[in-house]
Amino acid sequence: MEQTLPPPPGPSKPHLEKLTLGVTRILESSPGVTEVTIIEKLPAERHMISSWEQKNNCVMPDDVKNFYMMTNGFHMTWSVKLDDHIIPLGNMAINSISKLAQLNQSSMYSLPNAPTLADLEDDSHEDSDDQPEKPHFDSRSVIFELDSCSGNGKVCLVYKSGKPGLPHDTEIWFLDRALYWHFLTDTFTAYYRLLITHLGLPQWQYAFTSYGISPQAKQWFSMYKPITYNTNLLTEETDSFVNKLDPNKVFKNQNKTPDPKKKGPVQPLGGQKGPGSSVPSTPKPSSGYGNPVRK
């Protein structure tokens, strides 16, 4: 049975700070963010991991083992305050060992001869050469649910070659609500970084799909941007997420020291003469950062 501890008073404990990669301080300093909460859980005991492996005939990858030996699951939430209302927003979760259960492959309906997930699987779309092979709901893959994503889909630990499950044969995939698979990462460690750096924003996993996140989720993304992410994965309105400041352009003219020996023909501007009132006879295109200042 998983055990939880009450939230620690005052500043986060050192191991919690390490577990969250310091993201709590970033959230607490963000405007409007409130109620940043971590449910502290005791580490899993070794016999719990061994029992899981024996029950499921799968060897748990080392990085997953190390995670559970540090904390038996993970749950961090945060909210935003708009006017006088507090709205739950961020949700970062990884199931405990007891809830790291195999994705149900039984009948979808409680009727005789009802279709199963394997029956509903569509094999008509073959995987392209540059994409990993998708998991299967039948015995070709063994799938465990890491996170229910607040009902928006499921993040799964997938053993690609079925049982017995070997640790080097695992990947992390996202199963959307339409039962389509989307590859996330090769390792649990890489996925955990994605989870933290995306701040648990709603539907962030859909940024790694071909259809992207919803317009409502994009509004939250624009207010509380992930720490790191690939903007090319967003299918629409990527300009709202891109920092357009280009240091090479900003400091382009300042890096060049004018040579006093070389002067081009000058012409007066507005009837004024003197320093700062001349320009080259053949003007160059503007860099887009405004007009030159006249002294």
Order of helices and strands: HHEHHEEHEEEEHHH
Average pLDDT value?
76
Proportion of helical residues: 10-25%
Number of helices, counting only DSSP H or I runs of 4 residues or more: 8
Q: What spatial form do the alpha-carbon principal axes imply? A: globular
Main β-sheet, spatial strand arrangement: 4-5-6-7
Judged by helices, strands and strand pairing, the structural class is alpha+beta
Taking pLDDT < 50 over at least 5 consecutive residues as the criterion, the unreliable ranges are 6-12, 229-257, 270-274, 276-283, 285-295
Number of strands: 7
Largest sheet: 4 strands, antiparallel
The end-to-end span amounts to 76 Å
Determine the strand fraction and express it as a percent band. 15-25%
Give a quick precis of the structure.
The protein has 295 residues and is of the alpha+beta class. The protein is 19% helix and 17% strand. The strands form 2 sheets. A 4-stranded antiparallel beta sheet has the order 4-5-6-7. A 3-stranded antiparallel beta sheet has the order 1-2-3.
Secondary structure layout plus pairing:
Blueprint lengths: L13 H6 L3 H6 L4 E6 L7 H11 L5 H7 L5 E9 L2 E10 L22 H4 L21 E6 L5 E7 L10 E7 L4 E5 L2 H10 L17 H9 L23 H4 L45
Antiparallel strand pairs: 1-2, 2-3, 4-5, 5-6, 6-7
Question: Keywords for this structure?
Answer:
295 residues; alpha+beta; 4-stranded antiparallel beta sheet; 3-stranded antiparallel beta sheet; 8 helices; 7 strands; 17% strand; globular; disordered C terminus
